[in-house]
């Protein structure tokens, strides 16, 4: 309960204080959502129209596909925590700018610090490039990346964004295959069997 309360207070503070210019055009901010004690944090790009309306991340068509994939590895939305690098919807679903990402970065950092997940999963290139600016999603998807983040060694798994699979059917099977790696990766991390050097 302590962690849930801390997250609630964080979101309330950031919704009040966030300097992101997208606040002017968005309906509302969309904080992260889910299990405060999750082993996995999923990080997407930015809210879409449905998320902007409802105030929760990944509730549109991409969210439905994500729920389907979670089911394929015997997990539910309630088991994970999900958020975005930008907490306000960019108009017409355009890509967020570097400034907009920077304005929301502290919020994301605090979410990660509070939850302290075993694995961070990037949904799409934008969230991956926020942490690993030199990686390409076409090369890095499905591969565990390791880096020191906020003073702690962390493990990251880049995946294609579920929304991309809605427009590119060939990515759908790739994403499903990569997604099925998650339980094995978690098991290895729990057993401390992944020991590659951080980049």
Give structural attributes.
6-stranded mixed beta sheet, Uracil-DNA Glycosylase, subunit E, alpha/beta, metal-binding, metal ion binding, globular
Proportion in helices: 40-55%
Order of helical and strand elements: HEEHHEHEHHEEHHH
Poorly predicted regions: none
Roughly what is the average pLDDT, rounded to an integer?
92
Task: Determine the number of helices (DSSP H or I, runs of at least 4 residues).
Answer: 9
- How many domain regions? 1
Strand content: 5-15%
Q: By helix and strand content, what is the structural category?
A: alpha/beta
Level-1 CATH class name: Alpha Beta
In CATH, the homologous superfamily goes by the name Uracil-DNA glycosylase-like domain
Which sequence of strands runs across the widest sheet?
1-3-2-4-6-5
Number of strand segments: 6
The termini sit apart by: 35 Å
CATH architecture descriptor: 3-Layer(aba) Sandwich
Oligomer: single chain
Backbone CA Rg: 16 Å
Instruction: Sum up the overall morphology in one term.
Output: globular
CATH fold name, please? Uracil-DNA Glycosylase, subunit E
Protein name: Type-4 uracil-DNA glycosylase
Organism: Candidatus Nomurabacteria bacterium GW2011_GWC2_42_20
GO molecular function: 4 iron, 4 sulfur cluster binding; metal ion binding; uracil DNA N-glycosylase activity
Keywords: 4Fe-4S, DNA damage, DNA repair, Hydrolase, Iron, Iron-sulfur, Metal-binding
């Amino acid at each position: 309960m302590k962690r849930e309360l801390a997250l609630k207070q964080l979101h309330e503070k950031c919704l009040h204080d966030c300097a992101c210019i997208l606040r002017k055009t968005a309906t509302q901010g969309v904080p992260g959502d889910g299990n405060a004690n999750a082993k996995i944090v999923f990080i997407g790009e930015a809210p879409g129209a449905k998320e902007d309306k409802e105030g929760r991340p990944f509730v549109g068509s991409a969210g439905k596909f994500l729920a389907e994939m979670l089911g394929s590895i015997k997990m539910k939305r309630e088991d994970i925590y999900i958020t975005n690098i930008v907490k306000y919807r960019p108009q017409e679903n355009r890509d967020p700018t570097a400034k907009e990402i920077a304005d929301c970065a502290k919020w994301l950092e605090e979410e990660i610090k509070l939850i302290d997940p075993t694995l961070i999963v990037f949904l799409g290139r934008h969230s991956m490039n926020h942490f690993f600016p030199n990686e390409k999603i076409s090369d890095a998807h499905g591969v565990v990346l390791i880096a020191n983040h906020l003073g702690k060694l962390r493990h990251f798994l880049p995946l294609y964004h579920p929304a991309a699979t809605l427009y590119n059917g060939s990515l759908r099977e790739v994403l499903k295959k990569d997604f099925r790696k998650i339980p094995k990766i978690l098991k290895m991390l729990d057993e401390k069997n992944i020991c590659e050097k951080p980049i």
